[in-house]
Write a structure and sequence with these properties.
By secondary structure, the chain is α+β, with helices and mostly antiparallel strands. It folds into 3 domains: 198 residues, Immunoglobulin-like (Sandwich), CATH 2.60.40.1760; 242 residues, Glycosidases (TIM Barrel); 77 residues, Immunoglobulin-like, CATH 2.60.40. Helix content is 22%, strand content 27%. The protein has 11 helices and 37 strands. The strands form 6 sheets. The protein has a 13-stranded antiparallel beta sheet with strand order 12-14-15-18-4-3-2-1-10-11-17-16-13.
C-alpha cells in the first residue's frame, strides 16, 4: 500500500505566510581584504549573522547573508563563481567601499545600506505607505508561520526602468509591475503566468542584473507592491546572489561565466524537424512520412516520433512497442540512409502499471513522502494512471535510468525529447535528504544532465530537446516552449516566451509550429511556420497533423518556400549560433537587448533579430499586416516588393502569405 499525500499534480510553490519582518539594523567589519569583506550583522529583533561581499568577476559582486542558528538542510548550488578575482577595500568607521574593475559598492554600516555608486542603484529601506505599512522587504529576513525564515532584499527602481529575464514568460518579456515566482510548472498552455522554465536571473535596462543561487522558489516583486522599488524573496537557509553591472549583453556574458556556456547543437539540429504528432504511430507510418518528405523535396533533417513509439500506458518504460515497431534498428538504419536523424519522446516518471514499478519501488528508486512511503500521484492531469517520480539523487535509480536511455539510443536514435520533469511535489523527500521544495526546481537539471550524458556517450553529442529547466539549463542545448493552443494569441505569447528565454541566458529555443492543441487554419499554420522556420530551432508538432502538405496547396507552397529559406540561411545560422555560445548572447535577439535606452525598442516585443543582421517580425494576427519597429540603420526586404527602410522607425507593413516576415540589414553578412 502506497500513501497518497494529496499533492496536486501541478505543485505550487510553498506559501509564504509572514509572521515577523526582521530587517538588518546594523553591521561591523569582521574582516576585509582583496578577497572581499565580511560583516557581522544584527537584525532589528536581535538576531546575529554574517553578510559576505566577495568579488566574483570584474563586474560582479557576490552577496551572501546567513543568520546564525539557521537549520542546515541538503541544498544544491547551481552557480560556480570564477576564482582569482580581487577587489580593493576602503574602510572608515561608518562605511566600507569595495571597488572591482567595473563595479563600485558603498556600504554604510548603521543603518546598514548598500549602493552601487556608478549605477546610482540604492537599496530600498524603510519604505512605507501613508498607513505606515511596509511596502518593500528590505535586506533581512521574515519569520514564516512554519517557523522557517525567508530572506529578502530590495532596491529602488527608476520610473522608466524595465525588467527582463526570469525564464520563460508568456505574459511578455518586460516584467515591470509583475510579481514573479520562479517555480517550474506544467504551464498547461501558454496563456498565463505559469512557466515550464524558470531562471532566477533578473536583467534591468539600467545596466545591472541579479542572479540568485538557489533552487528554492525565489520570488521577485518588480515594482508591483511599490512602484518605486523591486524586491526578491528566497525561502532558503541563506540569501546568496550575484550583483552584476554592465550593458544587457555584458550581463548575459557574466551569467555565462557564472553558470557555464550553452551547448552548441550539432549542425543537423538547426534544420527543420517534422513530427508525426501526438497520436498512434508505427514503423510503416514513419517510413511513409519519410518517403513523402523526400518525394516532395521538403527540407527535413530530423524525424520526431512522439509518445507512441512505446506501448500505450507504458510511456515511462523506454521500450519500443514491438508490434508497431518490430525492428527499431532496421527502421533507424533505413531513415539514416535517407539522411534523417531521429528524435524520440521520453519522460522521467514511472506508472504504477509499469512492469518495472515493483523493482524500482523495492529498490527505493522513487521519491518518498515525509512519512516514508513512495509518493504516488497524478502527473498527467488525470488522463492516465497514477505514477511515481524517479529519484535521480539515488545512484541506483540514476544508473538504471541511464542504462535504459543508452539502450534506446543504441538502436540508432540521435536525440531524445525530454518531456515533463515539473512534478516533484513539495512534500517529497529524496534519497540524498533533499526535500521537495529544494528538489522541485533542480529536478529538470538532474533529468536532462542524465540524458545528455548518455546521449554524449552513445550519439557523440549532449543535445536534449527539453521542456523544463532552471539556472544553467542552457548546457542542454534545446528548449521548446510547451503546449500552446492553435491560435493567434498563443502564437504571440509563444514568441514573447521565447524572447524571455533569450533574456535569461538560453540562446536555443523552439516551439510547436502550428500550436500543440487543436488544428490551425491554413493562414495561421503558414504564419506560425514562417515564424518557426526563422526561430533558433524549428519543429513541426501538434496533437493533430502538422505535415506541411495537409493544409492546402497555397499553404504548402508558402511553407515550402519558408523551409527552403531556412535551408539557405543555415550557414549564417550556424555562425550566429557559434557566436551565441562564445559570447553568452542569444541567437534570437530581442530589440531591447541592443537598445536598452530606446523606449521604442522596449515596446517592440513581438520581433527580434536572428543573429546580428536579420530582422524577423512574425505575423501574430490574420490579414497580413502588422507594425514593425526598424532599428537604427537601413533594412532591406529579404524577398518580395518594397524598398529599403531607414530606422529607427515604426512602419505598418503588408506581408503577402507567400513571403517570410524578414528584412536584411544593409551591408550585413548573411550569405
Amino acid at each position: 500500500m502506497h500513501p497518497r499525500d494529496g499533492t496536486p499534480w501541478v505543485a505550487p510553490p510553498p506559501a509564504l505566510v509572514p509572521v515577523l519582518l526582521d530587517p538588518l539594523a546594523g553591521a561591523s567589519v569582521a574582516s576585509a581584504g582583496e578577497d572581499g569583506v565580511t560583516l557581522a550583522v544584527r537584525t532589528a529583533a536581535g538576531r546575529t549573522g554574517t553578510l559576505r561581499l566577495r568579488p566574483a568577476t570584474g563586474n560582479c559582486l557576490r552577496v551572501t547573508l546567513r543568520l546564525d542558528g539557521v537549520h542546515t538542510a541538503p541544498r544544491a548550488s547551481v552557480v560556480t563563481a570564477p576564482t582569482g578575482t580581487r577587489c580593493t577595500v576602503e574602510a572608515s568607521p561608518d562605511a566600507v567601499t569595495l571597488r572591482l574593475e567595473s563595479l563600485c559598492l558603498e556600504v554604510r554600516l548603521t543603518p546598514l545600506t548598500m549602493e552601487v555608486t556608478d549605477r546610482h542603484l540604492r537599496q530600498a529601506t524603510d519604505v512605507s505607505d501613508p498607513g505606515d505599512r511596509t511596502t518593500v522587504l528590505p535586506l533581512g529576513v521574515t519569520e514564516l508561520a512554519d517557523g522557517q525564515l525567508a530572506y529578502h532584499d530590495s532596491w529602488f527602481t527608476e520610473p522608466d526602468e524595465h525588467f527582463y529575464g526570469l525564464g520563460e514568460r508568456f505574459t511578455g518579456p518586460d516584467l515591470r509591475g509583475q510579481r514573479v515566482a520562479c517555480w517550474v510548472e506544467d504551464a498547461q498552455g501558454s496563456t498565463g503566468t505559469r512557466s515550464y522554465k524558470a531562471v532566477p536571473f533578473l536583467l534591468s535596462s539600467r545596466g545591472y542584473a541579479v542572479l540568485v543561487d538557489t533552487t528554492a522558489a525565489a520570488c521577485f516583486d518588480l515594482a508591483h507592491s511599490n512602484t518605486g522599488a523591486w524586491s526578491l524573496t528566497v525561502p532558503d537557509e541563506e540569501l546568496d546572489y550575484y550583483l552584476i553591472t554592465g550593458t544587457p549583453t555584458e550581463c548575459l556574458r557574466t551569467y555565462r561565466d557564472l553558470t557555464g556556456p550553452a551547448l552548441l547543437p550539432p549542425e543537423w539540429a538547426f534544420g527543420p524537424w517534422i513530427s508525426g504528432g501526438f497520436r498512434h504511430d508505427s514503423a510503416d507510418e514513419v517510413r511513409e512520412r519519410a518517403r513523402r518528405i523526400r518525394e516532395l523535396g521538403f527540407p527535413c533533417d530530423v524525424l520526431h516520433i512522439d509518445t507512441y513509439w512505446q506501448r500505450p500506458g507504458c510511456w515511462s518504460d523506454m521500450e519500443w512497442d514491438s508490434e508497431a515497431f518490430p525492428d527499431p534498428r532496421g527502421l533507424m538504419s533505413d531513415l539514416a540512409a535517407q539522411g534523417f536523424h531521429v528524435s524520440l519522446w521520453m519522460n522521467p516518471y514511472l506508472s504504477v502499471d509499469s512492469p518495472h514499478f515493483t523493482e524500482a519501488d523495492r529498490n527505493g528508486w522513487l521519491l518518498h513522502t515525509t512519512s516514508g512511503g513512495t509518493w504516488i500521484g497524478q502527473v498527467w492531469g488525470g488522463a492516465h494512471p497514477d505514477s511515481a517520480v524517479l529519484d535521480l539523487t539515488h545512484p541506483g535509480a540514476a544508473d538504471w535510468f541511464r542504462g535504459r536511455v543508452r539502450q534506446v539510443l543504441a538502436t540508432g536514435v540521435s536525440v531524445l525529447k525530454t518531456d515533463f520533469g515539473e512534478a516533484v511535489p513539495v512534500a517529497a523527500v529524496a534519497y540524498d535528504g533533499m526535500t521537495g521544495d529544494r528538489l522541485h526546481n533542480l529536478y529538470p537539471l538532474l533529468y536532462n544532465d542524465l540524458v545528455a550524458e548518455a546521449t554524449r556517450e552513445t550519439a557523440g553529442h549532449g543535445l536534449t530537446w527539453g521542456r523544463s529547466t532552471w539556472t544553467g539549463g542552457q548546457r542542454h542545448g534545446a528548449k521548446w516552449t510547451g503546449d500552446p493552443n492553435a491560435s493567434w494569441q498563443d502564437l504571440a505569447s509563444t514568441l514573447r516566451a521565447g524572447l524571455s528565454l533569450s533574456f535569461s541566458g538560453h540562446p536555443f529555443w523552439s516551439h510547436d509550429i502550428g500550436g500543440f492543441h487543436g488544428t490551425p487554419d491554413p493562414e495561421l499554420f503558414v504564419r506560425w511556420a514562417q515564424f518557426g522556420l526563422l526561430s533558433p530551432l524549428s519543429r513541426f508538432h501538434g496533437m493533430t497533423s502538422r505535415l506541411p502538405w495537409d493544409f492546402g496547396e497555397e499553404a504548402y507552397a508558402a511553407v515550402l518556400r519558408a523551409a527552403r529559406l531556412r535551408t539557405s540561411l543555415l550557414p549564417y545560422v550556424h555562425r550566429a549560433a557559434a557566436d551565441a555560445v562564445r559570447t553568452g548572447e542569444p541567437l534570437a535577439r530581442p530589440m531591447a537587448l541592443d537598445h536598452p535606452d530606446r523606449p521604442d525598442a522596449h515596446a517592440a516585443d513581438l520581433q527580434y533579430l536572428l543573429g546580428p543582421d536579420l530582422l524577423v517580425a512574425p505575423l501574430y494576427a490574420p490579414g497580413g499586416r502588422r507594425q514593425v519597429w526598424f532599428p537604427p540603420g537601413e533594412w532591406l526586404p529579404y524577398a518580395g516588393s518594397g524598398g529599403p527602410i531607414t530606422g529607427p522607425a515604426w512602419r505598418r507593413v503588408r506581408i503577402p502569405l507567400s513571403a517570410a516576415p524578414l528584412w536584411l540589414r544593409a551591408g550585413g553578412h548573411v550569405l
